[in-house]
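The methods section describes the discrete structure representation at length, but only in general terms. What matters is that the chain and its backbone geometry are given together, residue for residue. Nothing conveys this as quickly as seeing an actual entry. For illustration, here is how one protein appears when written out as sequence plus structure tokens:
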Amino acid sequence: MIYTEENYNRLLEGLYARHPSVQNSGFTSGAYKPGLEGMLRFDEALGHPSRKFRSVHVAGTNGKGSVSSMLAAALAGSGLRVGLYTSPHLTDFRERIKLIGPDGWSMIPRETVFRFLTERDLQDLSFFEITTGLAFLWFAEEQVDIAVIEVGLGGRLDSTNILCPELAVVTSIGLDHCALLGNTRAAIAGEKAGIFKPGVPALCGQYDDETAPVFEQRAAGLPCPLFFAEDFEVETFPTDLTGPYQEANLRTTLAALALLGISPDREAIAATAARTGLRGRWERLQEHPEVICDIGHNPPALEINFRRLRESGRPLVIVYGIMADKDLDAIRPMMPAGAKYFLVAPQGDRALPVAQLSARLQGLDCTPCASVEEGVRQALDAAEKVPGCILYIGGSNFVVAEAIGWFDSR
């Protein structure tokens, strides 16, 4: 098969069909394969690219994408050629795999993706194993100076955990994916701490009495040096990632740079989104009326977002949709009572149908909508009639992705 845009798109569609992704299919037996055996065999078949570049490994319930991008921007600002592997993507599969340089970012070329998918034996591999192998091989071929690798899920059994990094980072611990990672923050911390390696410095973004003993026990058992972000005296500053949790992410990033021996390039970090192409983190899509989108989708992230919206003191219009496996019972009490909601279900089987969402949000001012696009249109009409209104779009990566695509197309 020769490369054409049409063949490329068809090949990606086939990849999703034959190797279901967690992003599209949830944590089914076909989409999620815990354990490293398959990834280790795949890495060997590829010539062990995981051993051919230096890396920083980043896990966490929330903040790992932002911290990964801040680190990549800072490392590139110091003159390094940096690989960046994150997930999920919002509008383009290639967002997952990028090169970050002093002058900006680029995604893996379509031709490279096409060649990899057509020339390799991908049978019995999960979508994430395939994507991880593709990223590692491209970073090795591009001879990056260092790569920042975000964990997909958990840490201990994640495909990325075949790495032996320069530094292991855990950004935060919250209750999410409990069926797979555990029902307590301590249990989830144990899974995240699985990325710690003997002799490799480990950094935790937050210290608390429930999770710190888990990290300390893991570090002592390997052993490896363990640090917490609060151990470092750092000076924060504004960045183009403006969400209410980004100051904590910045502190974690600055502590990580100190452990790596890299002086922070404030200008580079301040322009993280612009330098790395990161989107959907309290991103302003429009000024009048002000439209904000954010990919926060679990209770810890949404608690922060909804609190910021309430504390703004401004009228609120919210486009909201959620995946069926999320803890809506925990999220419901956090949702601003005075807001006007436009309820949506993004495309895909994982979304909670609008009728079910509406039934579970009784007591709120809710309007069911046929699609994300329709919800955004109706919400914009409503927001334009209310002076000083904030229109917030969130609840799911998929809602944000469809909304961003619609705004960009305009």
